[in-house]
Every structure is written in structure tokens, then in C-alpha cells.
Amino acid sequence: MTERKIRVLITKPGLDGHDRGAKVVARALRDAGMEVIYTGLRQTPEMIAEAALQEDVDAVGLSILSGAHMALVPRVLELLRANGQGHVHVFVGGIIPESDIPALLAMGVRAVYGPGTSTQKVVEDLRAAILQENHA
Amino acid sequence: MTTLAEEVLAGSRLALARLLTLIENEDPQGEAALDRLFPHSGRAHWIGVTGSPGAGKSSLVNRLAQAFRRPADGSPPRTVAIVAVDPSSPFTGGALLGDRVRMRDLSGDPGVFIRSMASRGALGGLARTTPAVVQALDSAGFDIILIETVGAGQSEVEIARLAHTVLVVEAPGMGDDIQAIKAGILEIADILVLNKADLPGAENALRTLRAMLELGRPPHEETAESLPVVWRPPLVPTIATQNEGIAELLGHIQAHAAYLRQSGGWQVRDRSRLQTQLEELLQTALLKRWRSSLPEGQYQQILTDLQARRISPYQALHSLLGEPPLPQSIQRGSTALFNA
Question: What is the pLDDT at residue B224?
């Protein structure tokens, strides 16, 4: 029986200590049948890239409420690419000003989810993106 | 073009991570790579860590890995791979793998590789592909492989057949002396750890566990002739969060490895593990082959008959296997015999 499970890393870079959002998303992805690796709080971009590599994940979800996204996200993307994981689907959730979203998308983030996004949308986006990649 | 197996042998962590995914997904490419890697396996010390949920297995694994990386006695650091298994949901197949939360101290160390695994429906505290995953990490050259099981209850004892050394982790307040003398998880301990030894009730728990150990454990098959000396499982109190008792625990782990090597138990465990692995593969493959050889609809028909209670589970089994049903007369005959 060959079964391909979607593996997702849910992680909180930076210094803010609020991981409720990250846990809600992790739980929703689990309930959608995915394998979710949860790292906990205060991860550096280096720690995130290392975990993504060892776990061979399809996607990385970054939950950021601290406002440091324009510093943290590019570093994570850079490290993933340096490790040969440029294909990994990176999405960001949290408090992200509307005006920063185009820049994040331009640097390679696949989706940005603000407060009030339904978890169903996150699940559907992720499934569609990874399905598409496997057929590409 | 280099193969995945060659990249793994050359030390590529990306290739190793990819390989583990292929193995977990039971992909033929993973199998092929394992064939190439297998001759390189058999050198690592496989250490199982099992025990109740919340006993502190992940914190203990974190500390042990640190201790192997920076030995207190000044011996050279050992490389460490960690396989941490958490349960899959039986309803959705999803899983939340949270063991890395307690292992953040290990990040940034190139001599450590952590992989989370979902149990994917297997019982016994491991995933079906855990043995192959550990074999791959062994082939990749790690000295020590720490295998953390699903938080186990009383019968998740698969780890005993996989690891060279099994640590059973308990915490105070998790059971009385009747729990301690039940067969099962405590029996498989090569080393018994009482973690959270600073909590209330620790003294009681230590006393109970010590009494249990003194009752002795039943001889294992392997102890018959192969092990001239008897290993008495030590009881080690630890406080993983404060790094207390870890050096002592490490000493016992190393003593157990030395004991296994000297007594021949290392080879005994290795051989019986390979036999178990073969038998499990065979079982899975035979079942699959047999199911695909069944005429279309026959299985469903018999299942329907069973579910409608027209036939018993045993009758269903015999008709699936194409065997004649048991004659009723045997039953009557034996009753008659009994009455006479």
C-alpha cells in the first residue's frame, strides 16, 4: 500500500509568545488527514529550515504576530532554497499589514492568511497546491 | 548519476530525509535504496524509549542526545539520530507530531538528526515502517539511534523486539503496585527510569518499582544459553527538565551495550529482529497477494453474510480460505465423550 501523506511544519518564528493561532491551524490540518509537525515557540529561521529538511515536509506554515515578518520570512525562504527545498510551499499567518502582502508573495510566499481566515480555506489551498505540484 | 543510496552514504541530509519519506510511504524507490544500504547497517546502538504519555519521554530523549553529544567523561561525541513516533488519528489518518517541541536544544547540531513519524494505524507503539527507517539511519552512519514510541499503555511492546536497549519511563503517581506487577511494559525494560523524581509520590513510586524489580523478571528466550551473565535492570531516578540523573542513566545505557556485546546478546537481538522484520513483511505481502487473488465480490459477499449474522466469523474464515466447514458431529461427539 503506497500512501502519500501531506507533511506540514507549523512553526512560530520570532519572539512573540502567542501560539493559539498556530495550534488552531495545526489541529485543522491534522483533522484534514495531514501529518503536522509542530515545533513550538521562538524558532529561529535556522531552526525552521533544519526541521523542514529533516522532516522532508511539503509545506511550512509560519505564524507571526510580532511584526517581524519582513525580516524573518525572507531568511526562512533563503535557507530553504540553500538546502535544496525551494519547492516547499511556504505560507504565512498572523498579523500582516495589507501593504506587506505583495512583497511577501513576490519573494516566494505562496499565501498569506490574516485574522478571520477559515481553516477550511487553508486546508483547501494546501491540498490544491501540493496536488498540483505532484502532477507537475 | 548518483543514486539516492549513494547520496545518503556520502552524508547528504536532504537525500536521507527524502529516503525516509519514501520508506514511510512504502514506495518501491525506498525499498531499492534500502537494498543498497543494508550492508552498511548493523553498527548503531538502537535505544528504545517507551512509557506512558506524559512521563517525559521527549524531554529525556533531548537530554540523552545532549549527553551523547558531549560526554561528561571526555570520550569523543557520538552522532545521534532520533525517531519520534506519535499516534495517527484512527478517524482522519492525520497526526500532530509534537516531540520536537521538547528537543529544541538539539537544533543547530549537525551531529543530530530528528525525524517525527506518525504511527499510521499500527498498534504496538511504532509505525509499520519504523524498523526500516531506523535501518536507514543506521546505514547513514549514526552511532546512536534513539527511538521514542507512542505514549504507551500496557501492551505496546513492539519496541522490545526492535531495540538493543529498552528504557521504560515512568513518572510518580501513574499506578499502584498491581500495575507494576502486570505483565507487559515493565517487563520489557532493560533500564527502568523514574522521571519527574522531584514530584510528590516519587519515594512511593521508587519503592514500588524497586520491589517489582526484585521479584525478578521472567527469563527471556535469549537468556537461555546465550547470556552467561544475567542483566538486572537498574532503576534510575531522573529529572529530565533539570538534567538530573542523566549522566547516571547514560552510564547504565553504556553498561547495557557492553553487557550485550560481551554476552552475545547483541547478535541474538540483531538476528531475532531481522527474523521479526522478515515475518512481518511476509505477512503483509501474503495478505495482499491473497486478497488480490480472491474472485471479485466474494470477500464482500462473505462479509455481508457475516454482518447479517447468517454465518459465524469462523465459518466466514473457512469459506474465504476455501476450506470445508467443521463437521457438526465433532462437537456432539466430544460432548458425548465429556458426559461419559
Answer: 47
